[in-house]
Amino acid sequence: MKVTNRTVFIISGDLALAQRCSEELAAFGGRYRTSIVMEVEQARKGIGRISPAAIFLDESAIGPEESETLESAVALLTESAPVVVAAAPEKQTGVSFLITSGAVDFVARTNDFLPLVAEMLDRRVRMAERAAGMVQFPKDERSSDFGEILRHEVNNPLTGILGNTELLLARRDHLPPSAVERLETIAGLAVRLRETVRRLSNAWDERHEHARPA
Known about the structure:
Elements: E1 7-11, H1 15-26, E2 33-37, H2 40-49, E3 54-58, H3 70-77, E4 83-87, H4 96-101, E5 104-108, H5 114-136, H6 146-169, H7 177-211
Helix pairs in contact: 1-5, 3-6, 5-6, 6-7
């Protein structure tokens, strides 16, 4: 993902909360451009026109429809950018595999949680900018971050693939056996690729660490 702007999508059914989040992010001084939408579907359409550097999803934006859950919304959004999710603490378990992949940050929706949300968004955007710089200048001093960049840039779309596959497999009783078999193959290959990325990035980190002067 090449970042050409510092656009952050803020998705929240609470307009006042979304505006406060935008103000908290502005306090970091990064000249952020925020785009506020109140529904996940509206955000998906907007993402098609503008590539955000990061996305904030507030649980209040999840509609009452059974087809739209926090898990499904997050899985789809990670196809476009890393996502910071704010939801009730008990909802963290449902997106745990996305958090583990590195594509999602979770903030418990308790007390004054917006400063932490803004901090995580700022970190995600800066990481994306470093990734873009890495592509342009692969031999400069920032190469020490390559392991983290690799995890970030590959795991985001990979997590979207795996997340959507898992959502489909959750409805395997309504799918033909051949479709289930193909989905299981996709999930297995995605997991293998994620493990390969982990090994490569760890090997790079160790190599760079050993190369540093004592």
